[in-house]
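pasting for ref. prot 1 ->
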Amino acid sequence: QVQLVESGGGLVQAGGSLRLSCAASGSIFSINAMGWYRQAPGKQRELVATITSGGSTNYADSVKGRFTISRDNAKKTIYLQMNSLKPEDTAVYYCAAAPTTTRLDRGSWGQGTQVTVSS
């Protein structure tokens, strides 16, 4: 079992920045991929960014150039630096972990952290 705890959400004005953190614990030896999803009210869940144990990253087109995913292996933590935030970035952001990126949606999930961007 892998436990994930997100933090760093909050309220920010459009154009501002936030950094989300996701700390992993438990059976993390099986984890080679982690990522961030988000879900806004009335919208489908969206995969925002992923990072592998080798450091490869991928981003949704909607956040490319604004968001950066990174990891600190010593702290067993991944981060999502969000810059130039827009009201449409408002959502609950979830951290996920799995053996591969293709299995993230079926892997371990955190409880979510709310990000609200005001116009």
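and prot 2 ->
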Amino acid sequence: QVQLVESGGGLVQAGGSLRLSCAASGSIFSIARRGWYRQAPGKQRELVAAITSGGTTTYADSVKGRFTISRDNAKNTVYLQMNSLKPEDTAVYYCNGKVVTTFYEYDYWGQGTQVTVSS
């Protein structure tokens, strides 16, 4: 089992910045990739950014150049630095941990943290 706890959401004006944190505990050795997803009202959950255990990063086109994902292995924590925020970034942001084995994939999720960007 893996537990993911997010922090750092809030209300910010357009053009501002926020940093989200996701601390992991439990069987974290099983996680191949950690990432951030978001879900806005009436929309599907979408991948924002991800980082593999080897350090390879992936970003949604809509956040490239503005968001940065990073990890602190000593703290078992992944961060999402969000700069130049736009109203369309408003959503609930979820931390994700993906387990990948030969036979299956499994996703762990945090409880979500609200990010609201005002215009």
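DSSP finds no helices and eleven strands in the chain.
The two ends are 40 Å apart (CA to CA).
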